[in-house]
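go over my protein:
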Amino acid sequence: MNSPIVPVEIARKLNELGFNEPCYGFYNLEGKYNQSYKHGMILKNSSITIPNCVAAPLYQSVCWWLLENYHCRIKFDYDYLMDISIIEILNRIHLKN
């Protein structure tokens, strides 16, 4: 985790699960990160806000969202393990839904 923003793979999984928290950036269809200066804070993949994009949340927002919506806590010691933990949790939640 060199960036406070989750990678595009995690952002896409969050979008599938209904992540709908404010973000300052988004990923386009090609997976390129864009900061949302013109739009201010955006909400997930809203065709009204920015078409064909997924929100690019901060890790902190994802951890709070998982705790509030799925009672999952992310505990990590190494940056790499945090991405793996989040992906594993999102995959398990997706399988249950």
In short: The longest strand covers residues 25-27. Residues 79-96 form the longest helix (18 residues). Strands lie at 22-23, 25-27, 33-35, 42-43, 54-55. The chain has three helices and five strands.
